[in-house]
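Researcher: Next entry in the queue.
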Amino acid sequence: MNISPKTVNCDENNLWVELNEGRTLGVPLAWFPRLLAARPAEQAAYEINPRGIHWDALDEDVSVKGLLAGLADIRELNRKVA
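Model: Structure for this entry, 82 residues:
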């Protein structure tokens, strides 16, 4: 079975992703600074594909594999470390 996103929502603090196999994952928006800084309309302007979620205007991609592994936006973390 391929696990893919079914629905996506952001609240004030979290990104919520319902998967096609029934689970719902919630992760802190702080893991994805571009999503955290985005306006609600920007957060809602996403595209779902079989492997994850893409926000074109925000240049943000979140993979189901990364969410299941508990991974944050590595690009942003690398900038803070460097």
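Model: Strands lie at 5-10, 14-19, 24-28, 47-49, 52-55, 60-63.
Researcher: Noted, moving on.
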